[in-house]
């Protein structure tokens, strides 16, 4: 990240939207048989304060890449995956971020500081005849020693147009068994002995293993995704925990089995 001098007023905030037709197979995640057609679009906006009067580099900006489906109802579902803090439009998302920076820039008492950025990429992780899974992948910097990044997963049933919850995949009475299987897999993944405490090196409440709220059904696995700071320090990064479906086939609901079969 470059350093820059006290910002100089630019002409105005610059916002533009571009779109391009994208073959589904290029953004279809783990599914090889995409069914819902979509195109990838991009949105970009930048601050009115330039980082450098001559080059215009390092200006604070926000960038969003996202799919647009042919079906308008599906697009409403996509919006719920894009806007996670109460926003309703791209302009609202951009305004919230850029105005915060502009206020900071105007009130800054130092002569040099870093530009901010917010990059958001909504990717289609899985796309089958029955459901779609999306990843909202965010990277941002708003000052401090380092930036931040996180991934948010959401899956939607294409028939009911509702978000798929874990209880839709796993029979409710089988959830405790799923937790036990996942913990055993987690300990194996992290090289932790069966009887070792999770309190010393992880952020689980009271040292009790819990499943991540972030999950996605894949062709051969049920993925649970822990973002930085969730169970480990930022330096240790994120954690992907994949449970083989063959290990939990007896725990699946009839609907969960249908979702799995829709990959074929």
Automatic annotation (TrEMBL):
It holds the Pfam family PdaC. This is DUF3298 and DUF4163 domain-containing protein. Residues 57-148 form the Deacetylase PdaC domain. It comes from the Bacteria. Keywords: Signal. The lineage of its organism: Bacteria, Pseudomonadati, Bacteroidota, Sphingobacteriia, Sphingobacteriales. Residues 167-245 form the DUF3298 domain. Gene3D superfamilies: Fervidobacterium nodosum Rt17-B1 like, Heat-shock cognate protein, ATPase. Residues 1-23 form the signal peptide.
């Amino acid at each position: 990240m470059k350093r820059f001098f006290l910002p100089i007023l630019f002409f105005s905030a610059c916002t533009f939207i571009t779109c391009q037709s994208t073959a589904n197979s290029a953004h279809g995640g783990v599914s090889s048989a995409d069914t819902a057609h979509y195109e990838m679009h991009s949105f970009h906006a930048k601050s009115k304060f330039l980082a450098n009067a001559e080059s215009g580099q390092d200006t604070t900006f926000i960038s969003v890449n996202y799919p647009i489906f042919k079906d308008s109802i599906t697009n409403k579902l996509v919006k719920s995956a894009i806007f996670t803090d109460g926003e309703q439009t791209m302009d609202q998302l951009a305004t919230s971020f850029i105005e915060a920076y502009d206020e900071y820039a105007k009130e800054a008492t130092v002569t040099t500081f870093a530009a901010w950025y917010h990059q958001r990429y909504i990717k289609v992780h899985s796309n089958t005849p029955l459901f779609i899974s999306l990843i909202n992948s965010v990277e941002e910097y708003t000052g401090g020693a380092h930036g931040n990044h996180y991934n948010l997963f959401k899956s939607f049933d294409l028939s009911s147009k509702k978000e798929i919850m874990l209880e839709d995949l796993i029979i409710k009475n089988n959830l405790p068994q799923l937790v036990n299987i996942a913990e055993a897999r987690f300990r194996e993944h992290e090289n932790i002995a069966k009887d070792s405490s999770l309190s010393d090196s992880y952020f689980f409440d009271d040292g009790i293993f819990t499943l991540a709220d972030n999950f996605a059904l894949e062709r051969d696995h049920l993925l649970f995704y822990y973002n930085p700071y969730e169970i480990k320090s930022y330096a240790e990064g994120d954690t992907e925990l994949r449970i083989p479906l063959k290990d939990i086939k007896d725990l699946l609901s009839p609907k969960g089995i249908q979702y799995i079969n829709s990959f074929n």
